[in-house]
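Intended use. Records such as the Ventricular zone expressed PH domain containing 1 entry shown here are meant for training and evaluating sequence-to-structure methods. They are not intended to support clinical decisions.
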Amino acid sequence: MHQLFSQVLGQRDLSRAGDLFSLEDADIEDCLSQALDQIKAISCSPDYLTNDNDQAVVEICITRITTAIRETGSIERHSTALVGLWESCLEHNLTPQGENTEDTPHAKIASDITSCILQNYSCPSVMVLAVPVAVRFLQRGNRELSRNMSSYLSLAAIAKADLLAEHTEAITISVLGGNHMLLRVLPSVYPKQPDTIHHHLGNLTAMMPQLESTEQQHLIRLIQMVAEQHPLMLSPQVPTLVGYLGNQSLTEALLGALVDVSQASPSSLVSFLSPLRILGQQCPAFLAHVAKIHGAVGIISETHAHSSLVYLVSLLGSMEHSFHHTLLLEVRALTDRYPSLLGGCGKDIYRMSNSFTAIARLLGRRLEEKSTSHCRVDEAFQSDGGGGAPEQQLQVKIQAFEEKLGDTVEDEEEEAAGEDSPAPQRRYSLSQTVREERREMRFNRSKSLALHAVRSRSINSDEGEDGEGVELSTDSAFSNTLPNQHSENHEVSPAERKLTDGSLVGKGEWAEPDRLYIHLRDNMEMIGDFCKVMVQQIPIPEQCVIEDSSRGGAAKLSFSCPLKGHYCLYAKSCFNLTSRQPHLWIHIMLLHLQSKSSVPLSTRDECVQKLGSLWEKTQLKGAHSFSMAMTQQTTPHKKDLDNLQIQLEEVRFFDLFGYSEEEGGWLCFMCNNPEKATVVNQEGQPLIEGKLKEKQVRWKFIKRWKTRYFTLAGNQLLFRRGKSKDELDDIPIELSKVQSVKVVAKKRRDRGLPRAFEIFTDSKTYVLKAQDEKHAEEWLQCINVAVAQAKERENRETTTYL
């Protein structure tokens, strides 16, 4: 062991402990494991809890050792000794007692070591030793330690889920005990330990209302995985899940899970069809999910099938065309399973009309006349003797179809053309039917695809082939539908115009509904009202760059002053902020863009595509797409916005910017207060001066403060060795060299605002304390403004020189 380490640890020499930081990391790297073993012996001694000197020595030595391990990259070499000391803390009390909320001595040791070990979550040899110990800390009642462990274990779950899988039970119990941060671990370990999580599934789903929105998304992801892999396990939770459908941010994901459950256990959804129908009526975007659940329940029995068919057929004539394919597949599955529901004429009904309204009417009548053994289509078909050319057979069917509907059947496209269109015409010939069908496809592509799929399945059934599961590509649907199609000049109908508006995206023959456009269109007023209030609380970044995308991404945000006055703090530079909430910032930027636009934005807009590109860089496996995520909830929750404000306060944004109602934006301090700019920029005129206490020792547990007199003027923060203005100056702090100014966090038991703050330069850190919170705020704002001004001046000079 190095001689100085031997002296400090052997003699518990606090006076020499600080000298350890003067040693080179390479000079002590070989003896770090020995030092850790000796620290373990000291911390386990009977008098350690009452010996302040030993505790101070241990804390200083641990800080020096962990620093050396990080700098030399020797964690694998010393991991055994480091984890051994860490684990020994579990043998002692870690929970604060009584009113004293300060960490116990062994909790402090564990806390100091935690980050050094667990920040190496991607190193298997270290994690093999560390994870079992980390999981034990979760159960020891120290909230701060548990929170830190959870944060690192969440990262470990991304990199090495296998190491956590065997601890699934302990992790799940910790989650149920209130450690919600660990929810993000459960989807990672579920494939390895599904039975363990199945055992607690009821309690996990029941805790949804207690969670914040981000935590809910982790639980939703777990529920989706269970629904995909073991849907029967969720059937007992169906009542609970249906109860959560009222939460807009959860509705779509939960409906998707319920669809999976309905396929495996349709009986579990029988009692909830009525609320699902109400949901579909209120939110038509979810009708496809509701239809699939009705289709699954209908398979149970003919009675259930009849009830489901009545509902599905009622939708067929009223829903948007984009849902028709899904509806017809569900209807077809039920009528194939129970042919007697339509008297055996289902296939003919599907073939006879390219009008979904007509199909819906005919199906509805057949369901009402269920007792009739043969439909009139069958009679007409039988009168032909089952023979004749295919054209003649189709002609007979068309005539029977017209008899059935009478004058009530109208062509959908003639209805869409408006009052100036010619009167509705019946289809008396095959050639006319062909022309109508061709027009229908031209005017409404989505309807043609659905119809073609149904017809193909009907034909396959006639030929003795199984049509289930047939999927047609767009190209095949349109290239094989009708022979001898010719290109015709025609006026653009309302149906065709609908294809060209912002609600559809895609290229060529086919287009899909633009989910984002529809969402923004339907919520423009709400978004506008929200943004009027939001922009006065949260600034909109001028630029956003995504970094560290492998871990979910961090948003590097830049803010500048739009006014750029003579004394502007950010005319040539920007205020930069790094946030671990990129998704929230992207959502806010999208809403702000929409609030500035008089028309709904769509995924085709360049500004939206740029935000989508940023979103893709933040995506982890299993995350929602940009359009899906942006439509989960119309506006962010208040709690999320409050968190953003807190982060902006922590980086002192509001010292430097303020919202100007006159300008309608966030201006820098100088542009917002032009009357103060003259005073601030007077040569030699102090911006603020007075007494502050400076900390003399860097370690936070040693409280040695000295009062000095400080003056903030120009580009410098000057301070004197004594309490008077007239004493000799020390070397001043050059403000242009200041990297950041931060508030020193207070201990949890302290009340009020912090009084201490740190000034970081490239060579030194200063810890200062004002006499009270009010003076601390004044000093912090003045220093931040002066630092920004010094850097802006430097940027302008550099630009001028260049």
